[in-house]
Design brief:
The chain is α/β, with parallel strands linked by helices. The chain has eight helices and seven strands. The protein has a single domain, classed as Vaccinia Virus protein VP39 (Rossmann fold), CATH 3.40.50.150. A seven-stranded mixed beta sheet has the order 3-2-1-4-5-7-6, with helices on both faces.
């Protein structure tokens, strides 16, 4: 068992304590500084050797709470910038004001490259589960890479969807191809058969059980041969996001590709085909 004799894990414990004592996780100088420190601590490629599955119980509990806090902070940040962007006449032309926009450009490029390696032909319909108020993945893929594909975004939160719709409503092309559905993914069943590719957002299923349940549900209803793209985390980055285990969490799927980034992109990407 690895516990906090490791200086990296000690630093993460200290940052967790500071982040969990904040009054709010809405974007402000303190929140931004602490979360930036956390990301800089966890993303160097040299920390890929950390295996969070081998942490002691205390560190496991801290990690679960940290993922929850990071998820909440990310939601607040996206909501904040979606509101600002929504005040522009053409939000789509101002996306670079979002501080992590460049990361989304890199992640979308990476996901598109993986898709083209394993997809025969251009996907006609893509579903994105857990799209949130700032659905940059769908927007970037639809604008730059899959320019004829329709994107169906699913989110349980109606206010997230109304902010997201505001971002694309002034764009004649995207407003036709990027669509939004407010519902719980577990209530989406036969519609899943219509998609060639399903993307599962990193923040859907914040713990191992919920993530596995979401994947199992998608596996039950997706059409045979369709591609599932899941975001995961590797090494110390697993203090920031849940990990999808390719051996135990993807029953019913054939794993095609696993990519662990070495740069500032945080999420790993797993591509699997429905058997």
């Amino acid at each position: 068992m690895v516990c906090h004799g490791d200086p990296l894990i000690q630093t993460v414990f200290e940052l967790h304590e500071k982040i969990s004592s904040l009054d709010s996780l809405k974007p402000c100088r303190d929140v931004n500084t602490l979360l930036s420190q956390l990301v800089l601590t966890c993303t160097p490629h040299s920390h890929h050797h950390i295996d969070v599955a081998r942490l002691c119980n205390k560190a496991q509990e801290m990690r679960s709470d940290l993922i929850r806090l990071c998820g909440e902070a990310e939601g607040q940040l996206e909501s904040h910038f979606a509101t600002i962007l929504g005040s522009f006449d053409r939000p789509i032309e101002n996306l670079e004001i979002f501080p992590y926009y460049k990361n989304y450009l890199k992640l979308a490029q990476l996901e598109f490259t993986l898709l083209t390696q394993h997809c025969t032909g251009v996907p006609n319909r893509v579903a994105f589960v857990g799209s949130g108020p700032l659905p940059l993945t769908s927007i970037v893929l639809a604008s730059n890479h899959l320019t004829t594909t329709s994107f169906h975004n699913y989110d349980i939160d109606p206010s997230a969807n109304s902010k997201a719709i505001r971002l694309i409503s002034s764009d004649p092309d995207l407003s036709k191809r990027v669509l939004f559905h407010t519902c719980d993914v577990f209530k989406v069943t036969k519609e899943l058969k219509e998609y060639d590719v399903v993307l599962l957002a990193a923040l859907v299923g914040m713990n191992k059980e919920d993530k596995a349940r979401a994947i199992e549900h998608l596996g039950r209803y997706m059409k045979s041969g369709a591609i599932l793209m899941v975001r995961s985390a590797h090494g110390a980055r697993a203090f920031l996001y849940p990990v999808v285990d390719v051996h135990s969490d993807l029953g019913g799927f054939e794993v095609l590709s696993v990519f662990h980034p070495k740069d500032e992109v945080v999420n790993s990407v797993i591509l699997a085909r429905k058997c």
